[in-house]
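During the first year of the project, the team set up a workflow for recording each protein of interest as an amino acid sequence followed immediately by a discrete structure-token representation. This format lets reviewers and collaborators read both layers of information side by side without switching files. As required by the reporting guidelines, we include two representative entries from the current panel. The first entry is reproduced here exactly as it appears in our internal archive.
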Amino acid sequence: MNRSPGLAHAVDVLRRGGVVACPTEAVWGLACDPFDASAVRRVLELKQREEAKGLILVAADEAQFDGLLDWAAVPDGRRAAVRASWPGPHTWIVPATPRVPRWITGAHAGVAVRVSAHPGLAALCRAFGGPLVSTSANRAGEAPPRSLEDADPALFAAVDAVLDGPTGGLERPTAIRDALSGAPLRD
């Protein structure tokens, strides 16, 4: 496990197409540049996850999603509800624009997005200058690690950097809801 000496090193790793393990609101996650197909493929291989499922994008603020979300397709009241929940532990499926790569949306027309209130994760997005892939740091079907001690040593040995810090203390990963209807997809 290559522990990161700090935020600047983690951002450098991300910009070079690397994968960073970092704490999120509830669990440890894997982050990479969502527009780097090789980095996303590595994340999917590490997780043994199918591309068709899609991945979550996380940002420091809504502006980091500019050009990626088709807000015009979301009714005004629903759009207001989504925006009122951010920053916070709320992930929404929002219709995606053509700028969002298929390796992010998977087999879906929407993209899962969250503006994080987790200080470390938000700082990483801010320093990177845009949204990042954020997915739990576990292999498909296994429990996500809530601490570094719970992490799969083989998976963490395969990442390029580990950005230390505490998780946000949530009991479960963030809820996922449909922005068009408000319907829960994961509570």
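The second entry, processed by the same pipeline in the following quarter, appears below.
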Amino acid sequence: MTDVKHREMAAGRWWELPIAEQLGHVGSEVSRALRWRSRDPRIAQGALERALELLDLTLDDPRHRQSVARLREIARAREVLIDFLAGPNRYHSTGSSLLRYFDAYAIAARRQQGA
């Protein structure tokens, strides 16, 4: 990563968060990218870049190395996100389908914090 946007997270703090919280944070950036997509593409692009950076940090998290299925899911989420926001949308995703996917993690993280 050449231009790190989440410096504190990249310094290792990200790896202290549970997977649900990690992907919930990604979802915040995805939501921002979707919201700004038609209004200001520059802001939307920045949010997409931050979301991808967080997904890359998640993929690099040593805790996830023990589960090929988990790594595959995170990598697929990254692929689908790029396909929808910057590609030909081969997977026929929608903004609402992406939000539902990432919101489920944010809700799970909130429940874990409340437990």
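For the second entry, the following points were noted during internal review. The radius of gyration is 14 Å. The chain has one domain: 17-114. Both points are flagged for discussion at the upcoming steering committee meeting.
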